[in-house]
Amino acid sequence: MSIILSLPPEILQDIAFQLAEDIRHENVRNLRVVNHHFCRAYDPVFFHTTTIDLGLPAPFLEQLATENLKPSQFSRRLNFIQPTQIPGLVSALDGEVLPSDVYIRRYLSPALLSFETLSSLLWKIRDADPIWLHECLLETLSESHRSTLSSLQILIDGPINLAFFDKIIPLFQRLNHVRALDIRALNIAYSSGGVVKRLARSTLAVNSQHLTSLRLNSGVPESLEPDELQDAFSDVSSDYDHRMPLTHLNMSGWRLSELATVIPHFRSLRSLRITQNQPFDLWLALALEGVYLRDIAVRDVDDTLLEYLESYSGLVSFEVLCPGEGVYQLDHRALSAQFHDRILPKHHSSLEFLYFRTASDDGWYFRAEYGKALSRCKRLEEYIVGIEKTEVRGSAGNDVINSLVTAIESLPVFRSLKILVRSSGFNTTEEMNTKVKIWNSIERARQQTKKKTYLIEIMGRTPLVYGPTITSQG
């Protein structure tokens, strides 16, 4: 231990961040108290994130405002939570009982100003009222941390009165150094979707020159709000020559009929996640602009996506989230076969992650003939796939499991296999019987191998887990 404690602080910090889940262990906390060298290195990790919950404002808000606390010195991320209901009265440190709005007005701005290294804000908004609260937060942060606040996450948790909220929308343009922007409506409410659209327009207008990551979840069905995507990107789309340095784009709940038209602005794009039916011209637009994605997550797959994937090499991560649940009638078994026959060979030297969700009977299940193509993906680390129940029964199931295990065993850096099992309604007995059959088939297939260094999970209501030292887990 003395050797570890003698390491330079920057190396200790690097170790601490890698072991972030363990650093709050009691023994580590005790060591931090008694060893100054250790404390100085680990404090930036201990106090990396601070939460201000206005449902419990006292006494923490006052302490931040009046004392030199560790969170003020080291926190880089602030979680700011607006509660459903703010308490009526709170007690200050000197015993004075104050109405909560008076208490918050007195200490919120000084508390925010106390943070010295803040670079990330998560803001959960439950109501547009009181306006002064949002104005205080935006005005204070824009004055004190505008140049350092590079990550902004806004969660809309409930219906918002747009007439109230429109009053503070312009204030968001003061935060004009944002590189990662995440705006989400957590509930299906039309006013929440409208807030997301307005916030997107406001923040994109002043951050498009340096924004690299954008996530927008409108919280509304994709077909109910016309032209919302065009509205959100209107300031960008009006200038065809303008190109954003955007590398990561995540869209959910939007009608994407206009997405292809803004692709020319996103020529740096490397990661795309869209959780609804993509327009047929999207993949053609990406190919025409020479935008070759490394990370793709889509609701469904069609021929145009396969043609796009076949046009280049270098895909690292690929997820199919809801095959068979889209509005189009597609032959998913044929598409799955084409992916393994035509697409995997194009990306076998780069793929690290594959996920095929099986939410319907027409899902992308693993089949015995896919094993050969999978075994060539030597950089694959994680694979999530379903096995069709009808193929688990009898010798065919053994062929499928043998092919899957044999392929996985040949991959040098593989870490995790998750097998998805669909159940019929609440028939837990049927689900468990299926998982046990898969379990037994895996055990038989692995008896001849010495490679036990990766994790296998048979997913469901009660997962079964294999690992180097794990036999089962309920």
From TrEMBL:
Gene3D superfamilies for this protein: Ribonuclease Inhibitor
Matches recorded under InterPro entries: LRR_dom_sf
Protein name as it appears in the record: F-box domain-containing protein
